[in-house]
From TrEMBL:
InterPro entries: Cyt_c_biogenesis_CcmB, Cyt_c_CcmB_bac. Its main location: membrane. The chain crosses the membrane at residues 17-36, 70-91, 97-122, 129-152, 164-185. The lineage of its organism: Bacteria, Pseudomonadati, Pseudomonadota, Alphaproteobacteria, Sphingomonadales. Required for the export of heme to the periplasm for the biogenesis of c-type cytochromes. GO terms for biological process: cytochrome c biosynthetic process; cytochrome complex assembly. It is a multi-pass membrane protein. GO terms for molecular function: heme transmembrane transporter activity. One of its GO terms (cellular component) is plasma membrane. Belongs to the CcmB/CycW/HelB family. This is Heme exporter protein B. It comes from Sphingomonas rhizophila.
Length: 187
């Protein structure tokens, strides 16, 4: 909601301009929501030995990664989808564009959660991990953001398909990257 509140102040009250960039503003909000807790996604469990105890109990690192992805998505994804409805009024998104944006966010936010957990696992235990995680995550999230924002336009079919392909790749690969990073941090 904060991003949707600030955007009209930054670009002005032109409803036509706000309608064109509103989908991108909602995607910036989604990226921000996924990135904010990145330091707390894996590092506290690694530092406290929870990940080691789960490994001793026979839980694979990939299962831990997949569970963390689902948990992280549940903390921001559904709330973001709900907040997008009143936020669309502030950024002058019409009803059809809002529906396309909600579909794009529903497809893309699990991928943002997966990317966040994988990057959090890669940077766990490093000094200034939050800043490093942001630098690692932003270039990897750019294709998802481009296709997701483009999917809010009138001709959004191919952009939505490309976003779904990128999202499937991220969601499918992130548990394995997370598991490998957790194993590497243990050695």
């Amino acid at each position: 909601m904060l991003v949707a509140t600030i955007v009209p102040f930054a670009v002005g009250p032109d409803a036509q301009l706000l309608g064109r960039i509103g989908g991108g503003a909602l995607w910036i909000a989604a990226l921000t929501a996924a990135l904010l807790p990145i330091e707390r996604l894996v590092e506290p469990d690694r530092a406290d030995g929870v990940l080691d105890q789960l490994a001793l109990a026979g839980v694979t690192e990939e299962t831990i990664g997949a569970t963390k992805i689902v948990a992280h998505w549940l903390t921001f994804g559904p709330l973001l989808l709900l907040a997008a409805i009143p936020a669309s009024i502030m950024v002058a998104i019409d009803g059809d564009s809002l529906l396309r944006c909600l579909v794009a966010l529903a497809i893309g936010t699990p991928a943002l959660a997966a990317l966040s957990v994988a990057v959090a696992a890669l940077t766990a235990g490093l000094p200034r991990a939050g800043a490093l995680a942001g630098l690692l995550m932003l270039p990897l999230a750019v294709p998802l953001l481009i296709f997701g924002a483009a999917a809010t336009g009138a001709d959004s079919g191919s952009a939505l398909k490309l976003e779904a392909a990128v999202a499937m790749l991220l969601v499918a690969g992130a548990p394995f990257v997370t598991g490998a990073a957790i194993r590497a941090a243990r050695t």
